[in-house]
Write a structure and sequence with these properties.
8 helices; DUF1848 domain-containing protein; alpha/beta; about 325 residues
Amino acid sequence: MIINTGSRTDIPAFFHTWFYNRIREGYVLVRNPYQPQQVTRYLLDPSVVDVLSFCSKNPAPMLPRIHELDTFRQLWHVTITPYGRDIEPYVPPKAEVLKTSRALSGIVGKGAIVWRYDPVFLSEKYSLSFHKKAFQSMAAFLKGSTEQCVVSFIDLYEKTKRNFPQARTVSSAQQMELIDAFDSIAADNGMQIHLCCESSALTAGHPHTDAQGCFSRSVIETAAGIHLSVPSHSLARKACSCLLGGDIGAYNTCLHGCRYCYANYNRAVVEAQTAAHDPCSPYLIGHAITSDIIKDARQESWIDHQMNLIDFL
């Protein structure tokens, strides 16, 4: 199975000590975000965890101890967007994150690094031409350190509309204009673009762009160098074929403060939640309570060890 850490929060940026403690102790307890008394215990053991999957805007805090993960296969999605502190007030300077991504690639290998340029939105400041220039500059810097890039356009979730009322959707014509540019840039820099929950119509005439999803089986297989046989119950949503189950994070705990965020209610709630974080607890936030109902996750390796024709090529 896949253990995900980044659909609900940014564990590498803010909870790295806790995560390494969980690796050392070999398990983690995760509350159901909609039924908090329901708790799932996941083993953090390479025999049943095929890949540790991360999604972070700042992997740097993880790097000093990264070799503690050497027994695990890893997949890192590093989000690097062109927005300033008006949009991402607590994200480190982009030049630092770009350098961190290259350094991480040197440790885990370029196949295990995916650059996320998302979400894309437009404004007077962040125009079409701005995005084209920013994408070109970042892709050139990351050339050789990753071969995969995820692009998505902003979705106006209720939390997003409340926290970022100025946000507006990107029209189909504007999306096509950007993908026209991005696909060519990706080709020049040895990258494949994966669209995240976007129309497959955007791939027409764009050989370096697909709409298979950002955490799809093929993306994970490419990153980890394995073949997977994934049970149907593991697909987390109907919009794509991404394997997003097994997330050990918690909503309302990311301190980056991005205005477009779908995972946080508001800053006050986030600060209250993170104040209850204990790096020594098996729970990301807080501790056990008497009403907890703890169940073991159904965990098994999905690796298909049978020889595939591709192994002989």
